[in-house]
Amino acid sequence: MAQWGMTIDLDRCTGCEACVVACHAENNLPVVGEEQAANGRTHQWIRIERYWEGEFPNIRARFMPVMCQQCDAAPCEPVCPVNATYHTPEGLNAQVYNRCVGTRFCANNCPYTARYFTWFTPEWPSPLNEQLNPDVSIRTSGIMEKCTFCVQRIRRAEDTAKDEKRGVRDGEIQPACAQACPAKVITFGDMTDPESRVSKLAHSRRGYRLLEELGTRPRVVYLKEGDA
Amino acid sequence: MAQTPAPFHPSEAQINRDLLGPLFKTGPKYYAMLALLVAVTGMVFVAWFFQLKYGIGMAGKNRPSFWGLYITTFVFWIGISHAGTLISAILRVVQAEWRRPITRCAEAITTFALCTGSLFPIVHLGRAWLFYWMIPVPNSRYLWPNFQSPLMWDFIAINTYLTGSVTYLYLPMIPDMAVARDKATGWRKKMYRILALGWRGTEREWVRLEKAISIMALIIIPVAVSVHTIVSWDFAMTLMPMWRSTIFGPYFVVGAIFSGIAALLIAMVLIRKYFKLEHYLLPIHFDNLAKMLFAMSLLWFYFTFTEYLVTWYGNEAPEMPVFWSKISGRFAPLFWLMVVCNFVIPFPILAIKKLRTIPLIFVASTCILVGMWLERFLIIVPTLTHPYLPYNYGTYFPSLTEAAIASGTLGLFVLLYFLFAKFSPMISIWEIEEGYTVAKHSVESAHPASLGSTVDGDVHPAH
User: Fold this and answer.
1) I need a labelling partner for B171 at 20 to 30 A (CA). Which of A139, B241, B272, B326 fits?
2) Which letter does DSSP use for residue A71 in this model?
3) Distance CA B124, CA A142 (A)
4) Contacts of A50 in chain B (CB under 8 A)
5) Which of B54, B66, B125 sits opposite A108 (nearest CB)?
6) Looking at the partner chain, which of B67, B148, B149 has a beta carbon nearest the beta carbon of A108?
7) How many helices (H) and strands (E) are present in chain B, helices listed first?
8) Which of B66, B133, B391 sits opposite A49 (nearest CB)?
9) Which H or E element spans position A189?
């Protein structure tokens, strides 16, 4: 069984946020408006973290796209009292919206702050409702959500491959963020296949995992800037 | 420590009159207070209604501060609940004679603080109407709740404690219910008759009651200690900076007993004043409890000092922003107010004998309640607003809805306590009478007659 993983090449990221927009469109993320955003209630399953280096005027911005790291030892999973978040056999950290009662304990225990809560029932005033993705459910208020690695695209590719009696090809699955990225920062694929692009990149000397020291064993590998 | 029998030697009829009085005499002041408390409690439910209607976003929480006032107040009330049962149980087990007028009002605090506190985990849910999904029974797909979750442990621990506390409150009430039954008329007589469980005051009943009470007292002590340890695990089991602390268990228990004794003292001052029980709640009771409070204040300070010293000494990158935000940053005013309320003000009042008067003990206890609430807040919010990745640092400010619900539960608690005082004597009648008998016997040191039968005859002469 495939074990899905991702690499993010920080050398390539320009911080354009195309991935953020693509994620909103693909995953039916609500846009909460200026006031709520100022209150820290945005929905961004993927976000570009921007850090400044140096003092003005010798200043440099560094960008780091962060989404759910799909940890193998995910701290969010054991703390949920109702099993709303669990690990799939393919190594995804899944969130079951219907099961969630909204204790928000999982979000508190995520070192990457990658989980987003639906504070109010989201609205898409007409005609915006026409652009909702039919493959992704709309979440009600009071539940937790987060990056799914575009699980709907994974399922579709797996189903197609099954119909055609073959395995999923490397590169056949692209999450929305990877597809939209003009600089090709994000690579997605099967970590267990030594020939896949993602596993080759993940084994590069530039590879590291975010907050590796916590022992969460994330599925996302960052490639630091510099020579390969 | 035997309570020196004051010159006040009331007859049994006098004790009944004094302690049962508040049950049957109801003045206009009572109704005014009742109306006020109902109004404050009503505010809680109106605010909650709007939160349910429009969404949990009505509370001021956000990312990364997913928890706030509700969990703060939850931990605070669970802490308060430690007053009663634990203190009363310890005093009963060691047979401290001066416990007699204290136990009932202490145990009632536990029960009602638990009722109030356990409202919060429900109020704070994103989908509060589904709270019963946490009850440990499998759902229609045979899926059990997750027993790995500290919230699940919380749910079980608090329910255990509530069940135990209610039992422990009720057992010593049975003989008093019988006294009330004999005094009451109409529907209240019927109610007390049911609650008295047919109590007649035979020797066998007394022996069994005493045995049941001592068993419950022993059982409830470890339960009480474990409950607040488990509440602390909501934090200590996580990965978060300044939450993942190994001393949180005892630290929370100490804080709980600390705020619990303070709440008990406040309740005792008010009961003494408004029910005119100066002859029953004597200065020595306040003095003894104040000494315990002093010891807890020192312990609390020691634990707090240790907690912050270890963090500072360890100097770990994710912890230091949380640490400095409390010591000198945005939360510093609240932090130092907490130290003043929990240590600087109570220390002289409780340490110096001249200052240990009832009004000043009241002041110190009030400060401690404020300080302990702040302590809970300062454990939760600074950590959440300073997560690992600094890009996600956030702020938190409670919303109006949230503040109304959290503060209004003080009204809910007082209301429950207030109604209880109308329903049951706030000082255990039979235990007081038993105390006078014990004192009389020890003074005369004549016949150390069997306690049970003496009391038996004393309390229920007529049926």
Assistant:
1) B272
2) -
3) 10
4) 391
5) B66
6) B67
7) 19, 0
8) B391
9) strand A186-190
**Among B237, B81, B77, B251, which Cα is nearest to B153's?**
B237
In order of start, what are the domains of chain B with their CATH numbers?
12-128+144-459 (1.20.1630.10)
> Checking DSSP bridges between strand A4-9 and strand A220-223, what pairing results, if any?
parallel
Residue B17 and residue B455: Cα distance in Å, rounded?
A: 18
pLDDT in tens, chain A (228 residues): 889 999 999 999 999 999 999 999 999 999 998 999 998 999 999 999 999 988 988 998 899 999 999 999 999 999 999 999 999 999 999 999 999 999 999 999 999 999 999 999 999 989 988 999 999 999 999 999 999 999 999 999 999 999 999 999 999 999 999 999 999 999 999 999 999 999 999 999 999 999 999 999 999 999 998 765
Q: What is the pTM for the complete model shown?
A: 0.91
A170 token code pair: 């490397």
- Residue A18: phi and psi, rounded to 5, are -60, -35
Beta-carbon count within 10 A of B177 CB: 22
d(CA B175, CA B414): 25
Q: What is the full DSSP assignment across A129-143?
A: GGG--TTSPPP-TT-
Q: Which strand (E) or helix (H) includes residue A58?
A: none
Burial class (CB in 10 A: 0-12, 13-18, 19+), B317: exposed
Nearest-angstrom CA–CA distance, A60 and A67: 23
Length of chain B in terms of residues written: 463
Cis peptide before A127 (omega within 30 of 0): yes
CA distance B76 to chain A (A): 18
- What residue in B sits closest to A211 (Cα-Cα)? B388
Most B CBs within 10 A among A76, A86, A104, hence the mutation to make, goes to A104
How many angstroms separate the CA atoms of A58 and B46, rounded? Answer: 55
Domains observed in chain A: 4-223 (3.30.70.20)
Phi, psi of B404 (to 5 degrees): -65, -45
To the nearest whole angstrom, how far is the Cα of A138 from the nearest Cα of chain B? 16
Q: Which residues in chain A are closer than 8 Å to B143, comparing Cβ atoms?
A: 83
Among the partner residues B55, B146, B392, nearest to A121 by beta-carbon distance? B55
Cβ of B126 within 8 Å of Cβ of A102? The answer is yes
B145: CB partners within 8 A, 6+ apart:
A81, A82, A83, B133, B134, B135, B136, B152
Report the distance separating Cα B403 and Cα A39, nearest Å. 17
- B152 contacts on A by Cβ (under 8 Å): 81
Q: Locate the chain B residue with the closest alpha carbon to A101.
A: B127
Quick one: which H or E segment has residue B212? helix B203-236
Are B388 and A119 in contact (CB < 8 Å)? Answer: no
